[in-house]
Prior knowledge:
single chain; alpha+beta; 8-stranded antiparallel beta sheet; 4 helices; 32% strand
Amino acid sequence: xxxxxxxxxxxxxxxxxxxxxxxxxxxxxxxxxxxxxxxxxxxxxxxxxxxxxxxxxxxxxxxxxxxxxxxxxxxxxxxxxxxxxxxxxxxxxxxxxxxxxxxxxxxxxxxxxxxxxxxxxxxxxxxxxxxxxxxxxxxxxxxxxxxxxxxxxxxxxxxxxxxxxxxxxxxxxxxxxxxxxxxxxxxxxxxxx
Length: 193
């Protein structure tokens, strides 16, 4: 085997391993979560949320909430860490029925996954000159949205100007999960001062 071919094979092995270690997206976790909920709850996603990411813009800890007609509060929540199931709970979601957020999201409108939503939001012109450190995401219905559109709410943390190793919450962007348009900007970039 030639040295060049050996290097190509080594590179391909490295790329395949890198692909395997990438964090799963929120939509990939829906499929994994389906394995841990009852038959009637499968694909009946009410909400997806993450914890604040650490060391990257892609969160590691995710919660997928399913509409579960067999649960007392009509919800089953599957928590994931690095793509692995951590817990399955039936949380008390008392206010959701009154707010209308207990119903499943329209799966046909779920076209923009978490990785794409982060990519779209991080390209917002106000963020161009900032060093982004972390994100936190929610996929849910928004009370201000006129239709039944699922919306990604993405909170950003950025480096402070005087102390670049410290980060600060600079606000949120709202991105349509259907077409990827930025619908609302609630950024406060002055906080990096």
